[in-house]
Specification:
The protein has about 400 residues and is α/β, with parallel strands linked by helices. It is globular. It is built from 14 helices and 14 strands. α2 packs across α13 and α13 packs across α14. It starts with 13 loop residues before the first helix and ends with a strand. The protein has a five-stranded parallel β-sheet with strand order 3-2-4-5-6, sandwiched between helices.
Amino acid sequence: MRVAAMGKSLRTNAARAAILVAGFFVTTPLLAGDRQYGPGASDTEIKIGQTMPYSGPLSASSAIGKVQAAYFRMINDHGGVNGRKITLISYDDAATPSKTVEQVRKLIESDEVLFTFETLGNASNIAIQKYLNDRKIPQLFVAGRSTRFEDPIKFPWTMGFAPNLRTEIRVYARFILDNYPNARIGLLYQNDETGRDYLTGVKDALGARAGELIVSDASYDVSDPTVDSQVVRLKAAGVDVLINMAASKFAAQVIRKMAELDWKPVHLLGVGSSSIDAVLSPAGIENAKGIISASSFKEAADPTWRDDEGMKRWSAFMDGYYPGGDRKSIFTVYGYSAAELLVQVLKQCGDNLSRENVMAQATSLKNVKLDLLLPGLSVNTSPTDYRVVKEFRMMRFTGKRWEAFGPMVND
């Protein structure tokens, strides 16, 4: 599948959205001196690439790529970035790392993109990380949350976007220690490097009490048809606090199976699977009531943000360029925010669109405010700090929306 952001834009509602959308764009003076271009860049175009699981078990997550293609169409309709249109080439990899490798090689060697952007999945990004770093090609704002995506020493050409998995896990562990100090903790995770990262993070955060508090853990393979047996095993172990870091399809299965078993532990759900439409609705909204998660972003369904300027711009974008998109989905919010940040990086590049300068600008972001980040949060990076979003706030599902509670927390 190929999604090109330079195609004919969706015109529906565009006129009505124009006034609000105008707030996106700030003219940035071009840098003086000779123009410098890497592959995929020219006086008129900036060509970038990604892979997404448009098919397979993680296909719900591909909304990230779809909303980003729509965002770049909007940018192009308003003149592009420093006069250049963005072309996004987005291929299907079915969340299969071997296919990711094949498609990324095609993007680099045939399509000649300037860099990759937001390829989805830890395993997929790990599979291409050495290839891109060896060739000094930016692997920007990857949609994966391993700590190895924030390591400027070993992988200077790779940057993540959302807080890494260990950061999220440590936030949950702190919540448990503060509120359920005698918990019987159960863990559910994917049987891969992502899962091992998660498991290590939990044990580190619980410290000396890890062996006492963790009474059971269960892993699954992405090829498994269900995780029902893992849920049964966790219940049988007497778990009363479940940390569920399963991917979307499996997270929905967990919620449904827990309802069938009438099992009601405190349920902490990974933010990557907190989408209302993609996970909670298929699992049964009533079954999901009371689940706890965390986020760094405004919740689109929360009336708190009805008059928020950033939310108004997001709503205008959705009206004009992605009217069929799920407004309750974390994938939509996340994809929009990553695309917004990339445009800021490209603005800062001016007329120097070499791969080196793209990376230099990505690692020198100062107090960048994104429309949908929670108030008080901004993006600050440096050549020694590749973390983009660093903080969370806890939230609880009411049966209708996610409701934030407690202070902003980090690791």
